[in-house]
Amino acid sequence: MPIANQQKVFWLLPVVAMLLMVFPALGYAQRTPDTKNIDDKLGEEIAKSESEVRARPNDLNLLYQLATLYHQHGDYAKSVPLLQRLASAQPDNSDIQFLLGLDLYYAGQPEKAVAALKIALRANPLDSQTNFYLGLCYLALDRNEEAKQAFAVMAANAPSDVDHLYYLMKAYTGVSSALLARLTDMGKDSYRMQEAKGEYFDMQNDPAAAIREYEKAVQMRPDLPTLHFVLGNAYWKHSQLDEAIAEFRKTIALSSTHFMAHYNLGLVLLEKNDAVDAIPEFRAALAIQPGLVGAYLALGKAFFRNGDYDAAVPQIQRGLELVPDNPEGHYFLAQIYSRQHKSEDAKRELAIFEEQDRKAKAAEVGKGKAAGDLP
Question: How many structural domains compose the chain?
Fold first, then answer.
């Protein structure tokens, strides 16, 4: 194999390894004599490490060694408490925080995993593996925009070479296709399969078909907030606002900290011209996630529609502090200042809006021309 191609394939190895790590159980799917011997050997190592920890319970190195063995064995109920103890003793240790985040994710605690992975990223914000798992945790929490940002960091770290990017894309696509085939084979009668079908129809911009699949998933697992959330979104896309409101409320009843459900519920209520009921939903979303920029603008818009201009201004201003290049925020400020008879402030905000809107439209035209160049 030519050296250039060797380099391309070599760069892909950690990508494939990373994707396979997402599904550690695959390694135990078919127990051959060899894998049984490996498990037996790992069990012996765990027993030895447990004995050493009993003799020296405050030795952090021994605790970390035992935690990693539990991790390798997939015993997250045992690894997580040890890693939490280690993280408390060494809060800035990125290796400990990463492994803690990893095992919390596998243990079904993505919200706690996010906190650990964020600490791990302080040492290296561009670390692809940590961003990958952070993105997975966000997906599990229905925080799709934040997941996209984490995956975008991974994409930005890829080599700036079209050949490398091409092989990387093919690697992800190949592994994704294989995993989808496995999911179809293993879970054809599961709620996950119905959810996957719903997501497919969502991507095809067919909300009616997506609704049918999500409804089947909800019937199978009515206790899962994420299913009610995606069903609510599908109803919303299909302009079934009352049904969407009901599903977002069910999501919140099952998970009171689901800030995206609060946020989307507020947006739907605002769409129904119910600003009074929308306001507490936006406030609840911001209380849980103060960095949710859209909620500041939406809350300001709700106050505006409710005639409370003084309350609207600081919310919109806060949103613009976080994202200054948002034409909509400046437009609403111009409207409010105009109604408050603050003509100079209104003119200033309107001028900013017009300039930003012009730039945004020009950028969209540029994107369209670039897309037109594609074969």
Answer: 1
- pTM value is 0.72
Buried b or exposed e, range 11-38, using 16+ CB within 10 angstroms: bbeebeeebeeeeeeeeeeeeeeeeeee
Flag whether pLDDT at 62 surpasses 90: yes
Task: Give the pLDDT confidence of 306-339 residue by residue, as tens digits.
Answer: 999 999 999 999 999 998 888 999 999 999 999 9
Task: Count the neighbouring beta carbons within 10 Å of the beta carbon of residue 259.
Answer: 24
Q: Is the dihedral of CA 227, 232, 238, 242 positive or negative?
A: positive
275 assigned to some structural domain:
no
Residue 321, token pair as written in the block: 């502090």
Rounded CA-CA distance 227/214 in Å is 7
Instruction: Provide the residue range defining the domain that includes 41.
Output: 3-175
CATH code for the domain of 159:
1.25.40.10
Q: Which of 160, 140, 157, 161 is nearest to 15 (CA)?
A: 157
CA dihedral sign, ordered 255, 265, 212, 137:
negative
Q: Is residue 10 part of a domain?
A: yes
pLDDT at res. 45: 92
Q: Identify the band that residue 6 occupies on the pLDDT scale cut at 50, 70 and 90.
A: very low
Within a domain: 127: yes
Say if residue 10's pLDDT is above 50.
no
Q: What is the DSSP string of 223-283?
A: T-HHHHHHHHHHHHHTT-HHHHHHHHHHHHHH-TT-HHHHHHHHHHHHHTT-HHHHHHHHH
Return phi, psi of residue 308, to 5°.
-100, 80
Helix segments in the chain, DSSP class H: 3-21, 33-55, 60-73, 76-89, 94-106, 110-123, 128-140, 144-157, 162-186, 191-203, 207-220, 225-237, 241-254, 259-271, 275-288, 293-305, 309-322, 327-339, 343-372
Residues 116-144 as b or e (16 or more Cβ within 10 Å = b) = bbebbbeeeeebbbbbbbbbbbbbbbbbe
Answer for the pair 225, 255: CB distance below 8 angstroms, yes or no: yes
